[in-house]
Amino acid sequence: MHLTGGCLCGAIRYEVLYEADAVVDYCHCRQCQLASGAPVIAWMQVPPTAFRVVRGSAAGYAWSPTAKRWFCAACGSPLYMTDADGRSVGVTLGSLNNPEAVPPTVHGWESERIGWFRVADELPRYEQAPPYDL
To answer: Does 2.170.150.70 match the CATH number of domain 2-112?
Structure first.
C-alpha cells in the first residue's frame, strides 16, 4: 500500500510503501516519550527502499550511536527514525496522512510504559524491542 505523510507545517512530505507483514508497534520506551512529548508513539518499520522524502529536508538528532531521529526543524514534528546499519526506517504513524490505514500489531518496551497509561487491547507485548525482521 502506497502511503504519504509529512509534518504539521507541510514543509516536509514523504512517501512510504507499507507491506501488510511490517512490524507496527506502540513504543513505550523513555526515548520515544521524551522525543514525542507523549506517553507512547506508534511506528511502522519499513526497509529504506520503501521510504523517501519527496519535499523538504528533515533535521536529524543522533540519540544513540546506532539510531537517528528525524523531525521538521520548522514545526518540530517527529517524522521517522533510521538505524546506523541502514536496515530500516521507522515511520511515525501520526505523521501519515491516513494513520487509520496502518493499525499497530504489537507493544514494544512495555518495561518502560508509564504506569498510568494503559491501552486496552490484546496485542502481544514485549518487555523490550519487538522483533524486527528487516
So the answer is: yes
